[in-house]
Amino acid sequence: MKKSILFGMMLCMTLTVSAQQDKDASAGEQSLFERVVKLEKKQDYFHLLLNLNNSFDVNQGDGDFQNAKFNMRQIRIEAKGNINETFSFRWRQRLNRNNTPAPDGIDNMPASSIDVAGIGVKTGDVFSMCAAYGGIEFDLNPIEIYEYSDMVDYMSNFLTGANFQFQLNPNHQLQLQILDSRSASMEDMYGLGYEQSKVPLLYTLNWNGSFGGVFNTRWSYSIMSQAKGYQSYYLALGNELNLNKFNAFFDVMYMREGIDREGIVSGIVGTNALGGHLNDAQYLSFVLKAQYRFNPKWNVFVQGMLENEGLSKANGPIEKGKYRTAYGYLAGLEFYPLKNSNLHFFLTYVGRNYSYTDRAKAYGNSNYNTNRISLGYIWQLPMF
């Protein structure tokens, strides 16, 4: 997934990317440093974390065995700390991704490896540092995700910008992001034939709400300037329910793009081979996950995803309408062997089914499905 987090400053622009607010699974866990030297770390200046998701996967496609392999899905190193009540810092980078800045990019940032690189400034209770984007799935630490929805997986969010936070009361906050709308060149992002916008920015307004901790929201609305005369609009409604041992979330996401930045519909029609992306693409996604911690050491979950992908307007001879429906279904069992550790082993099944409409089949597409069984572990390891 092309994923990111934004850390901004009140009056300054930072090196950063767009947006999540994942909580540390290892909060309160003793670090390796403390265990080795047998000394308690009493300051909050510096924390070093290693984020791991590693598994053995058995993959199948359309009923045929494909392969069985070990797969290091996520390996991220993270450093963060609070210098004082005003200044904080955070950096997180994915080690198994390319670290080269995108050619002709406007922010000189790697296109896929940096999650966070910035400093935070807090002035009273008005402005402080936090990431802002909608949806519960997008808000989670990437190592906790077994399979992303297409909507989130294809989003290119490694962007540079600033974030402003307004704490309305202890349970509700508004956040405003202002970001560069792309990190690569116009040609790499959209293909040929588009003129660069003079103000290529993305604006996001986010509401994070909590109703007694039982019901939480991550809602956002975003407007992006893609190119001259072309904008993208994104609405995300993330809703979470917490009832003691039971937790569930339901995300609704809708994107309407002047230029098909996701590239899914363009790939279905095959316009990428012609040098450009389609216009007026739209995506609608629903994600529902429920889990039950029936024992302190055991957790079981199920998840479903439904996504519709198509065009809101015709592109010349290319008809408007739906081109593909994507289904996802997951189930898994997690085992937490240590009392004071977030380390957990998992056994999961992940199924995907892609169903094409007749208008998409006219371009040579056929329905297909994939299946995967994975056995592995997830650990946010506190090193210092």
Structure description:
It is a single chain. Helices cover 8% and strands 51% of the residues. With 384 residues, the protein is mainly beta. The chain has a 15-stranded antiparallel sheet. The protein is globular, with a radius of gyration of 21 Å.
Helical content stands at under 10%
- The secondary-structure element order is HEEEEHHEEHEEEEHEEEEHE
Strand content: over 45%
Sheet with most strands: strand arrangement = 4-3-2-1-15-14-13-12-11-10-9-8-7-6-5
Q: From the alpha-carbon coordinates, what is the Rg to the nearest angstrom?
A: 21 Å
What is the structural class? Answer: mainly beta
Low-confidence segments, given as residue ranges, are 2-20, 123-131
| Counted beta strands | 15
Mean pLDDT: 82
Number of separate helices: 6
Distance between the amino and carboxyl termini: 28 Å
The biggest sheet amounts to: 15 strands, antiparallel
Shape: globular
Brief descriptors of the model:
8% helix, 384 residues, 15-stranded antiparallel β-sheet, mainly beta
Task: Offer a quick outline of the entry.
The chain is mainly beta and 384 residues long. The protein is built from six helices and 15 strands.
